[in-house]
Amino acid sequence: MTATPSPAASRGTEVRLTDLTRVYAGNVRALDGFTLHIAPGEFVALLGPSGCGKTTALRLLAGLEDADGGTIEVGGRDVTNVPTSKRDMGMVFQAYSLFPHMTARQNVEFGLQLRKQDKATRHGRAADMLDLVGLSKQADRYAHQMSGGQQQRVALARALAIEPQVLLLDEPLSALDAKVRSQLRDEIRRIQLEVGTTTLFVTHDQEEALAVADRVGVMNAGRLEQLASPAQLYKNPATPFVADFVGLTNRLHCRVAGGVAQVLGGAVPLLAGSAGDGLAIVLVRPEGVTIAPVGSGGSGGAGGAAATVVSASFLGASGKIVARLESSEGVGDLVSVQVDNTDVTAYAPGQRVLLAPRGDAALAVSAT
Amino acid sequence: MRPSGALVGVAPFFVYTTVFLLIPTIVVVVGAFADGSGRPTLDNVAALGGANSSFLPALQHSVVLSLVTALAGAVIGAVLAYAVSTARPDGLLKRFITSLCGVLAQFGGVALAFAFMATFSIQGFLTVWLNSLGLDTGSSIWLYQWDKGLMLVYLYFQIPLMLIVFLPAVEGIKPQWREATETLGGTTWTYWTKVAGPILLPSFIGATLLLFTNAFSAYATAAALISQASPIVPLQIAGTFTSEVILGQENVGKAMALAMVVVVALVMWVYAALDKRASRWLVR
C-alpha cells in the first residue's frame, strides 16, 4: 500500500509501528503483529469493532502502555522504550480529560508551562490555539461551564499547543450527540490540514473514519485487515470482514462458478481473494441492488429475482426497501435496497418486486 | 406564594435541627451569661480565664489533641484511601476495607477505651505477654495521658473516618488526567503537585475539618479512659454538671461549651475562606 502524501507533508513526522504485540492478562492478544506506517502529515483512522485492538495501538504509540513486542519509530527515532512524557504526543481523549481546576486557557497553557515557556509566549500561543478551535470567548471558563463539544475543542487546542510530533485522537467524538459530532469531525479535519500534524484517529464509527481520514485502517482481532483510502476501502474491500464492517451489506446465499457469483438473477464478479466454486455467501451493498415492481419490466439483466417487500422506510436523504427473496439460491434471504427518497412511496409491504444486481456498483465478496 | 405542601417534606429536617441544634445553642449562649437565678452576668465567662481555672490548659489540650489527630488521621487516611482506590472496584478487598472502616469510624466510646485497656494497660494481654518474654514495657501510665494514650485511641477512629469520607474524592479522579499530564510532558511529580493535589485539596481540607470537630467534641472515649483530672474540655464540662465538690457550676459549663462553639466557628471561617477559591471550579 503506498502512502498518499498529504498537502502538509513537509511539516509532519513519519510514524512507523512495526510488528507490535500486546498481550493482556489471560493471554488475550490485543495486538498481534500490528504494522502501520503513517506518512508525514498524514491523517490515518483506525476503524474496527470494540476489542479489535485499535485503542491499544494508539496507547502504545502514546507510551501509555508498553509493547510486548515490536518497535515504534517516530520521525526516524526509536521511541519504543521512551516514557510518554518525552514522546511529544498530543492526545485527545474520549471525554472528561480537561483539568477541572483550570480554565480553558490554563488547560491549553499547561503543556507550555511544563516546557518552561515564558508567560507572554504561553498567552499568545494559547490565544492562537483557542482561536483555531473557535473558543476565544470561552477562554476563562472552567470545564463544567462548557458543553461536551466545547470541552473536546479545548482538549484539541491543549494537545496542539505543544506542537506535538503526532496528534492522537482516541474516539474524541463518541461522547457527543450526533449533530455536534459531525460538526466537530469536519472541524478536526480542517484544523489538521491547517497545522499539518501527523494524526492517528481511533474510532468505531465507519462514517467518521471515511469522512476525515487520508487512509483508513480496518482492524480485526489485533491485526490490520486493510489500509486504504476511504474510496478504495469502500469499493475494493480486501476481505469479507472489511466489506461487512464498512457500509451496510446484504449477506446473500448464492452459487459461485469461475469467480462469478450467480446472485439476484445476475452474474457478479467476485473480488479477489474470495472463495472457490460452489455454494457461498456473498456480500452485496444496498446501493448495488436495483428494485422494480413486478410487471414494469424495469429491472435489468436476466430479469432479476422475485421478492416480496417487507418494509419501506423513508430515511431523509435516501430511502430503504427491505424485501424477502422468493427464488434463486437465496430463498428467504432479506435484501436491503437503497432507493431515492422519492421512490419510497412506490413500494408497500406485501408487494411483489424484482431485484437485480446493478452492473458496476454491485460488490461481491465471498463470506465463506 | 409557594404551595404549602412543598414545606411539609422539609419539616422533619427543621424540627430536628431546632430540637437538637438551635435550642441547645440558645440554652448554651443564654446560660453562659446568666447566674444561677437567671440574672445576666459575666462571671461564668470570667471564671474560665481565672488564675486557678483549669479551663485554659484543657482548651489548649483539646485543640492540640484534635489538631494532631485530625492531621495525622487525614494524612494516613488519605494515603490509605488512595491505596484502596487502586484496588479492583468490586473486589472483595475493597468492600471489606470500606465496610470495616465504616464500623471502626463509629467505634469510639467505652468499648474502644476498654479494648485499649485490655491490650495495653498494666494488666493488658500485650503487656503481660511481653513481660513474660522478659521485655519490660514500663508503666502503662502513658495510656491514660491525653497527649499519648488518648491521641492513639482517637487515631483509631479518625483514620477509618478519613478513609470513608475521602475515598469518594479520590475515586472522582479521572485516569485521563494523569495520562493527559504525561502526554503534555509532565512527570508523576507534576501530576501530583499541579493536577491531582490541587483537585483533591478542597476535599482534603473539608475532611480534615470534620476530623477536627469529631475529635474536639468526642466525650465518651476520653471519659472511659481517663478518670483522674479532666485534661480536655468535654470532660471539664461534664465535671461542672456532676461535681459533688463544687456545686452550681452548670452555667460555667455552658460558658465552656460556648468557647467550643467559638473555636469551631473560627475553624469553619478559615475553611470557608480557603474553599472560596475552589468553589469557582468545583461542581457540587
UniProtKB/TrEMBL annotation, chain A:
InterPro entries: AAA+_ATPase (IPR003593), ABC_SmlMolc_Importer (IPR050093), ABC_transporter-like_ATP-bd (IPR003439), ABC_transporter-like_CS (IPR017871), Mo/tungstate-bd_C_term_dom (IPR008995), P-loop_NTPase (IPR027417), Transp-assoc_OB_typ2 (IPR013611). It comes from the Bacteria. Keywords: ATP-binding, Nucleotide-binding, Transport. GO terms for molecular function: ABC-type quaternary ammonium compound transporting activity; ATP binding; ATP hydrolysis activity. Its EC number is 7.6.2.9. GO terms for cellular component: ATP-binding cassette (ABC) transporter complex. Residues 15-246 form the ABC transporter domain. PROSITE patterns: ABC_TRANSPORTER_1, ABC_TRANSPORTER_2. It is an enzyme of class 7 (translocase). This is ABC-type quaternary amine transporter.
